Predict the structure.
Amino acid sequence: MRKRTDNPLQQRSVLIATAARVLSQLRHDGRSVALILGAPVLLLGLLSWVLSGQPGVFDEWGALLLGVFPLLLMFVVTSVATLRERSGGTLERLVTMPMSKIDFLGGYGLAFGVAAVLQALIASALTFSVFGLTIAAPVGSVVLIAVLNALLGTSLGLFASAFASTEFQAVQMLPMLLLPQFLLCGIISPTSSMPQLLEWISTVLPMTYSVDAMKQLTIQSEVTGEVWRDIGVLVGFIFAFLAAGASTLKRRTP
Amino acid sequence: MRAAVDVRNLAVLRGGRTVVEGLSFQVQRGQIVGLLGPSGCGKSTLMRALVGVQQNVTGTCEVLGVPAGSASLRRRVSYMTQDASVYINLTVTENLEYFAAVLGVGRDRVCLVLEEVGLQIEKHSLVSDLSGGQRNRVSLAVALLGEPELLVLDEPTVGLDPVLRRDLWAQFRRLASRGVTLLVSSHVMEEASECDRILVMRNGQLIADDGEEQLLARTSTNNITDAFLVLVNLNNAVESVPDA
């Protein structure tokens, strides 16, 4: 794609136009909006109901899954949406126009970022108010981790879509890329109790850090240094996957 | 002024196979060049090479005086792919306004191109609710948005009714008279009569490069389909003679 030679303001306007366009596409697709905004709420509501017979258990699990569900959902939505762009010919058209990679990925990141933030805010609001999640740390810190997870799902989805050539394959990226992380992130069993090799692997997987942060926040009354470290690592992963996504955008294709 | 298109000894490798081989031709500005040939002959690959999205291209491929795909061409060359590459879950106007923003052209161009492709009535419809031919027109409208110097159009008239097809060719003619160069592919041989010059491709090679009249005269035929058949036979005959 084009090297950015024009003035930066004009460039940013393409990024914003792209974000607005992606959001318009979503707006015309009511089911996707319902899925993005409603599914985490439904799942967390279901979880609180499942655990309603065991006092205190939802407080342990609710926060952890408040992080995981937005990650899974935003991953699926983003990877399928960008795959459509790649396979539908519109990306090929865009690369012949004055558009940079930053405009394209940034536009997607911004649009789905907005959706992700809304999703995490709605899910958090209902989980705390209606489903009665109580945690030790400030509510805002849990909301922040949920938002970061949704953004992580978006950036990972942008990257993963490069390795799928059909929507069918894109959906299969979920069990390939995310479910192993779910097993290794410390929800099923603490990472410290895993075989050494698996513990090492878990340290390079982003979900491990979001689950660790959520665990800390459910038991500590303040945001500890370890939580800040987790937040830093998550932000790093978000940008790393965006950069990796950029490297998969090629002007010339076979 | 430099030629609009200057292709010399162009070859394209795709999937380990040479799909375009030894192509050489120049196109002067303001010409309408028809690229004809059966499906799978390499028309689209050649067009993708000219707009700089094709991998594994060898030989010379210059457009408006610079190598194809150069950054400076992104506003000067426009490309319409074979399948309507527009967003089906946006309305016609939303599509055009987005591409106009990317190209940095005003909204007045959006109204203008809508009129040119005859889509004013459908302008607030979702593209997914339109027919195949209408979708193609949305895609063509996008290609016309930026007032390019070279238009590379891959099968722009597929699925159009005869009236629209005629209007569109008239539109292409107006553009050419302003100095815009058009390279238009088609598998409808009859559209050749609309072009200043015809390139006929088969199996990745150029088997003719001529005006329609000269082509018909040279093959002693009275329509392009027959001329194509004669050319194919000649071509086969040449191929089967070992180093004559």
Observations:
- Residues 1-5 of chain A have pLDDT under 50 and may be disordered.
- The first helix of chain A runs from residue 8 to 27.
- Chain A touches chain B at residues 2-3, 5, 10, 13-14, 17-18, 20-21, 24-25, 28-29, 88-90, 92-99, 103, 250-254 (CB under 8 Å).
